[in-house]
Amino acid sequence: MKNPDTPLQQVRERIGRACKVARRDPADVTLVAVSKTHPAEAIEPLLREGQRVFGENRVQEAQTKWPALREAWPDAEVHLIGQLQSNKAEDAVALFDCIHSLDRPSLLKALVKAMDRAGKRVPCFIQVNVGEEDQKGGCAPGDLAGFIARARDAEIPLAGLMCIPPLDIEPAPFFAFLDKLARDNGLTGRSMGMSGDYETAVMLGATHVRVGTALFGARG
Ligand SMILES: *Cc1c(COP(=O)(O)O)cnc(C)c1O
């Protein structure tokens, strides 16, 4: 009997199937393995299987886990997917290869300053509050065009747009909305879709899916 697929193989297979349905090239979809809360010992098997892009939601946690892992796997990439406080901008610029949560002018300012100091530019996704939820981070859709213009003026490399749709309702309309906002603003990247809905996101244009539970199991 054939060995059962690993979770990573299963997720990749499902991304491949969604791409086929949508007539998309799987090479245009980056799987971001969300390793937040999981220790290095849980991350290493995925690295050995060839996974290279990971997502963390806290600066401090990433600082404790990733320097050693990067030494062993120098081509691994770590993306920040969680909210970022302006006072952590410098640490974030030093540590991450990409930031998915640029969502407000004060953070833009802090990131520009940190990038200028570090002499490097870290690509950023602008997070959009697609459900216009009070408690959620993200730029309001109505403020997006102005915010993108400010980021472009500041020479922040924009990777695209990111969203976390409201919980417990069908996410497809929100993914389609983010896709349209990206298109209207001339941006290629769409960071959308998590364990429960990444295939839907791929069919609606996701270029980056952020998958944790389906790869690592439930978080403690
Ligand atoms: C935790 C998290 C994910 C991954 O969620 P899963 O449901 O475990 O796949 C994706 N995006 C963000 C912003 C997260 O915080």
UniProtKB/TrEMBL annotation:
The keyword DNA-binding does not apply. The modification N6-(pyridoxal phosphate)lysine is found at K36. GO terms for molecular function: pyridoxal phosphate binding. Residues 9-219 form the Alanine racemase N-terminal domain. Pfam families: Ala_racemase_N. Its cofactor is pyridoxal 5'-phosphate. This is Pyridoxal phosphate homeostasis protein. Belongs to the pyridoxal phosphate-binding protein YggS/PROSC family. Pyridoxal 5'-phosphate (PLP)-binding protein, which is involved in PLP homeostasis. InterPro entries: Ala_racemase_N, PLP-binding_barrel, PyrdxlP_homeostasis. Keywords: Pyridoxal phosphate.
